[in-house]
Amino acid sequence: ARAGGFVDDMNVTVVNLNTFETVATTTGPGGDFYLNLTPDDEFEVVVERRGFFSQSVPVSTMGLKDGVLDLNSIRPLVFDVAEVGKPLILDKVSWSGSSDRLDGISKTQVELLAERLMINPSMMIEIGVHTDSRGESATNLGISQIRAERVKEHLILNGIREDRIQAKGYGSSRVINKCIPGVECTEEEHAKNSRLEYIVTGYFQ
Fold this sequence. Notes:
- By secondary structure, the chain is α+β, with helices and mostly antiparallel strands.
- The protein has helices at residues 71-74, 104-119, 137-157, 187-193; strands spanning 2-4, 11-16, 22-26, 42-48, 55-60, 78-80, 87-89, 123-130, 165-171, 195-203.
- The strands form three sheets. It has a four-stranded antiparallel beta sheet with strand order 3-2-4-5, with no helix packed on it. The chain has a four-stranded mixed beta sheet with strand order 7-10-8-9.
- Helix 3 (137-157) links the parallel strand 8 (123-130) and strand 9.
- Helix 2 crosses helix 3 (137-157).
């Protein structure tokens, strides 16, 4: 589930990056909130609520003397539900053939996941890599495990602690459409099964 814009009763923390002064409030009905910001300053606004992925928005009032800043105009705020055990597909991650190397686009997507995890520091996840049903199941299982480890390594390189990430290759054991062995499918249909998912497994106390 996704919630466009703000959600009621979210915690909003505004940090002045120059003075480190912090102001907190909560969103009201409709998800709105209002805070006065000093001019010619830099801020970080963190919006969070248990059960949702938090978001962080940089805000600058440099050169502004008055007016209203709309956070949605700085970064589109869509809050994904962070449900423990629910798989979320990381779009645009792909591998060529039996390769375990992430291409540039895939690395960018993994780095966006790293950013999400940095903003949600108590969250633990499992990286799950799946293949399509073509080829030997044992080979697919091995390839998917190596790919999952590569994704984990890239998350660690981007500042995520190793103990927050499990890496699991599922091979072709969990296809999500009709494309089981022996069924003729298009490349597009096979591609839906060759995917990278992440699952929230729990939270540090």
